[in-house]
Each structure stands twice: as C-alpha cells, then as structure tokens.
Amino acid sequence: MFFVETQSLPIAALRRVLAAGLLLGFGLFASAARADTPVDPNSAPNEFVQTVGNNALEAIKHSAKARQGDLAEINRLVDKYVLPYVDLAKTTRLAAGRYWRQATPQQQQQLVQAFKGTLIRTYSGALNKVTDQTSLSLAPFRGDPKADDVVVHSQLSRGNAPAVGVDYRLEKTPQGWKIYDLNVEGIWLIQNYRNQFAEQISQNGIDGLIKALNERNR
Hints:
By secondary structure, the protein is of the alpha+beta class. The chain has one domain: Nuclear Transport Factor 2, Chain: A, CATH 3.10.450. It comes from Candidimonas nitroreducens.
C-alpha cells in the first residue's frame, strides 16, 4: 500500500526518526532547558539546532495533550516551536523532485500542507516516549564556517536504550539557518519520501499524491 508503511524505512525505524527529531523540529529531543530560549538563526549551526530542540522538548514535556497524541495541540506546538526554523517547502520540493516543477503554485502549497499533516499524524504516537532521560548531544561543528549548506551530527540517548546517530542538514538563508533534511541510521528523510512520491505521481499525478496524503491524514 502506498505511503508511510514503506519497506525502505520500517515503522520501528520511522518511530525512532521522530524520537530523533524528525517531526517536531528536526531537533525535538535535546537536553532540558527553559522553554522559549531565544533562537539565534545566525549562530553556529549546532548551537542553533540545540536551542530549537531544547525549546521544543520543554514544550512537549509540559503538554499532556501532545504526549497523548492530540493532533490539534501537536500542530500548535509545531507551528510555534518548529516551523519557523524548518524549510518544509524545500523539504517537500526536494522530495517531489522533478515533479515539483510540473505542479501549479496552488498544488505546491497543498502538497506542503498535506506532507506536514502526514508527518505529524505518522509520528505523533512516539511523543508518549518523551521522558526526562531523553537527550540529544550535538557534536562540535567542524565544517566550513563560510558554507551555506551544512550537516550537523548528533547522538540521541533515551535512558538505557542504545544511542542513535542523527544528522541534520541545514541551509543558510537570508533569515538564517533552516533545517530541511534529517538522516537517522543512514536513511535520509527526503530520499525516502522521494521514492514514494515518484511512484504515486507517476500513477495518479500531483493531485493523486495530494489526495493520498490527505486521505491518510484523516
């Protein structure tokens, strides 16, 4: 069956992707810190990811509704703590590949919103696994400080569970750093969905993909 239940990324791994930071912020789970710490999008990329993650984690810890899977509450937190620092339009565009240029501006907007809904609904069940022991340790950034496209490396730990390596890809925009891709256990988010999108679009077109995503989101 098309979408989400993909053989290229099993559900167990998908859940770990969220736990590593996919849905709520591409950097959700980090070491505890006071919520709403100011985010400097022009700071070092690892510091930027750490602050975004800290704020999102604290918001989740203090929201029983979000941990219970309330989609309205999750959407609210995503809109406040995540989307300002994530280029979801770029993520969607790269996942759609060459088909993006074939879509009208209205279809592009609809696809971005449908993809956002799919990510939230698919991974929201992992939020009940957030604990005080969940932490994300950012490695020092050793890339070119002048580069405008970088990868930040981290290790996710949760209690006694094995640590998971998580990589974030960021782009420097006029507004500062934006996160647009994530790699967990060697699997890049965009590449995984690109294969699914291409299959659906080739069979049913852009509108067919949007419809499939929205149906899955209900």
